Structures
1.
Amino acid sequence: MASYHLSVKTIKRSAGRSATAAAAYRVGERIECQREGRIHDYTRKQGIEETFILAPKDAPDWATDRSRLWNEVEASETRRNSVTAREWELALPSEISAEDRSQITRDFAQDLVSRYGVAVDVAIHAPHREGDQRNHHAHVLTSTRKLEPEGFTAKTRVLDSAKTGGVEIEQMRGVWAELQNKALERAGEVERVDHRSLEAQREAALERGDALTAEELDRDPELKLGSAANSMERRAKVMAERQGREYIPVTERGAVVHAARQARAAFREMRARLELARETYGIEREAGQGRVSAGLAALRAATAKDRDRTLEDFQERLARVVGRSEDQDDAPKPEGRNYARERLKEIMEKDAGRAARKPSVNERLKDVLNKPREKLEIEDEREQERDDDENENTRDRDRGEGHSL
């Protein structure tokens, strides 16, 4: 299932960071920072799939030179606590191809250029070799000033303001979600991403009457493993696959996360089976089947092991199981008979017959209470005689055992 993630961070001098170091690290290159007099060399960094720079149409020629670009960014900021760059961190869907991931990232970066007039430096990263192999992501580094023919000019205050910054970022989150969903649709994926908060998604689900989705969204966030625990769990999974055994978490956090994921998977499976049962019941009822036949068909559909078949496949198979088409039985069958109901009736009659052969507790109690007193006294005398005989035999055995000593 595709997941959504977009976060925005700032590169601040007050935190001891620089735009030159941030750019060099994300693209895996060597950049000399002229303001600091330091060299940031990350050429040995691995996992970088693609890098590119986008700038406004009337930007200077040096905008495509990464080292020059970010040194100009640093030179345009004179304050000690300046925000020199802004980073947009994006999660890329693993369900689409590498080409599509590159294209939607480029489209998003171009939208930033067109909307704010800034320079954009993009680095697409592959999943870490010891992490989740679905974790394709991109780092989009932008300037905080507009890039015009004369160089960097005014600040993009629309993103810095408390009144407008949140609104702008939320709109860009919607743009990113739309780009992903279009790519997922082209790839034939059914699932879609949603950039709204869990609370907003839950309210929307309730409005459209989807209580199950609302209930699934109304849950506590999943416990984060952390890099160390995640690496240990990844190695345990790989080892379990190689040995052909079931994966067992090796850390406490891993066990909690694994149990939560299994519970959610079971919930989704139960919900899918319930929906299939409802649809099957409705189809069978529309086809003229009675409640019992439709219920049996829905039950068989919900408990079927093959979950990959379509509803039409289930409908066709259930028509053979419940309806018992005429070519399966050479004996003539009168029209209008419901064989599923008749079979159920036979089973109920057999159960009723078994119950009739065995008297109930009330019947046995009534029989005892209605016996004549003389009969009861005779039976009591016989019971007493049996008890006396048993006691006498017990005393004889005791005496014999004593003589043997």
Note: Residues 196-222 form one domain.
2.
Amino acid sequence: MGKSIFFVTLISIIGRQLPSFLLLFLSAQGLAAGLGSYPHLVVADSLSSPRNGVRVTYLGTNGYQFEFKGHALLVDPYFSRVDLLSVALGSRIQPNTERINDGLRHLATKADAILVTHGHFDHLMDVPAVMAKTRARLIASASSVDLAKRAGALSGEAVKPGDVRRIGPWKIRVLAATHDRLFGKVPFDRPPSQALAKAGPPQRAADWICGEPLAFLIEVNGQRIYIDSGGTLAQLPPNESGSRRMDLAILGMALPDSRARLAAALARLQPRYVLPSHQDDFFRPLSAGFQFGPLTDFPFVQRDSAQQNRSRLILLDYFRPWTLPAAVNPKSQTPNPKKD
């Protein structure tokens, strides 16, 4: 049976049970390209690269590790990569211990903190297990902290936009954010008071509610990194164009809402480097290699980024660290045109 016939048959059988956005994922599987189509954009440290700066490691989905002088900070670590049908059919899902351990082998053994942008399973589900392994503290919204605790986390610090935390060498500003809509709705979005009313741990994808989305501005080593998991035009990043430029902007680009606000976000942040995030097919195991998600549109991201000619567009592969270069001229922070 050909691939297209297979998916038509599969969709016809379970179509009534799937949200429309999952139908799109099923029908588009295998059509997206990988990083091999953009080798000139992929950056990574070489053996001769300086290691005294801020090292950035991509963990898949919207997950990152930042390292500086023996300290590590994690954002949205997710290694389990639950399969699409389990999510679509409302089956019980749980962290995959083997995949989590495989992912953690690439990372620092101890982390200062884990920042979580929102409560969906592909951002929060693995956090309790990662906390136990790395002894990191959790910093997230109130609803995400509650979910993490019900899933086994022993502690968590609830934060809201405007809060500032200083942990080791990291200064972390908590910022307001929104989540992309799909067909007019945020996936798995219910008021925390309703979603968290029942006792017991979250068991299905829909139990991992979005909650209150957050973004973060991380300052370390005299450099500034902005990170979110996506968003809408209703909530743009802080306007940094009148001050010192952002060194790195990591912007979620999974869905159309994120792409619609890309130009405005870049105009406000004026980053030296822009890294589009949440672009891989997060239903595939990390071991299968990077493949763009079926609903992403990287050529669009390229075009919009090219209009910001002071920002350099980059991509990262799984578990291949890259050290954020220091600004050539800190006063102007003009991007280094040389290839890393």
Note: Residues 220 and 302 are 28 Å apart (CA to CA).
